[in-house]
Amino acid sequence: MANTSSSALDWRTLLLLLLPPLFWAGNFIAGRAVSSDVPPVALSLIRWGLATLCLLPFALKPFWRDRAHYLTYRWHVLGTAITGVTAFNLLVYWGLHTTSATNGIILNSFIPFLVAIFGFLFYRQQLPRRQLLGLLVSLAGVLTVVSHGDVLVIRTLAFAPGDIIIFLAMICWALFTLWLKQIPASIDRTGLMLCQVLIALAVLLPLYVWESHTSHAHLEQTQTLWALLYIGIFPSVIAFLAYAKAVTLVGSVRASVFIHAMPVFGSLLSSLLLKEAFHGYQLAGMLTIFSGIWLANSATNAASGKV
């Protein structure tokens, strides 16, 4: 097991770590917005179909070059394709039909803890106290944002059946993060993602045929089409490639803790795009989140194994 780099994050790595939560925050908003028009399997199929079209021009060459490596690491490739590409997104879209975006964000915030727990159980990865403190501090910031600064809101939250589904999605993402790290960095991540997406499409197609007997997608609205285009490009291609590269650079736990930045970007997007008021509790939550992220990723804390 390699040691995590003790160097501080440079701006390129920091960008790789911040782009995924930015685009995934938009994915939750867009996915919730089109949930009444596009059923879960159809949405996943459209998403990864668009992602394939975006990937093909520059992923086909490395995909073909590394095809032998995919067979060598076939179980990790298959596992990441099923958990991170197929199941995670399908379960999130399914869960958003019966739960709120707030509950989804709260459940999403448990991913770093699941990564840490599974990393310890399956790979004997140690979690230093300062890294654990960083996770707890950033989680406190998440709860501050989603509760509007009122602890009573958290105590009175009602959890719907969709929350169980979304929590299963979080488990899938934690496994995806850990298994992704087991695929050597020498294998091009662009070609690997094309392989993962093609596997996902093969799984989704029969599910779509089954779903189409009971529900259909309605694509008449222009805003629905724009939302689908966003989902197919930014949270799918750009965010996935950035996250995959970040995991190879800094390890699974340090990369996953940046997922706590999602409510930060969600609040900023709401203020900028929807002209919603920006409140003091949001600023306090954001500062707390980034303080926790800094603690979990500080150079003096990087003595744990990179898993």
Give a verbal description of the structure.
The protein is 75% helix and 0% strand. With 307 residues, the protein is mainly α. Helix 2 runs antiparallel to helix 4 (74-95) and helix 4 (74-95) runs antiparallel to helix 9 (161-181). The chain is globular and about 50 Å long. The relative contact order is 0.23. Residues 1-6 and 299-305 have low confidence and may be disordered.
Topology summary:
Blueprint: H1 11-33, H2 40-65, H3 67-72, H4 74-95, H5 101-108, H6 111-123, H7 129-146, H8 151-155, H9 161-181, H10 189-211, H11 222-250, H12 252-256, H13 262-273, H14 280-297
Helix pairs in contact: 1-11, 1-13, 2-4, 2-10, 2-11, 4-9, 4-10, 5-9, 6-9, 7-14
The helix content, as a percent range, equals: over 70%
Overall outline? globular
Mean pLDDT: 84
Poorly predicted runs: 1-6, 299-305
Order of helices and strands, N to C? Answer: HHHHHHHHHHHHHH
**Over the alpha carbons, how many angstroms does the gyration radius reach?**
19 Å
Secondary structure class reads: mainly alpha
Distance between the termini: 7 Å
Strand content: under 5%
Largest sheet: none
* Beta strands, count: 0
| Number of H- or I-type helical stretches | 14
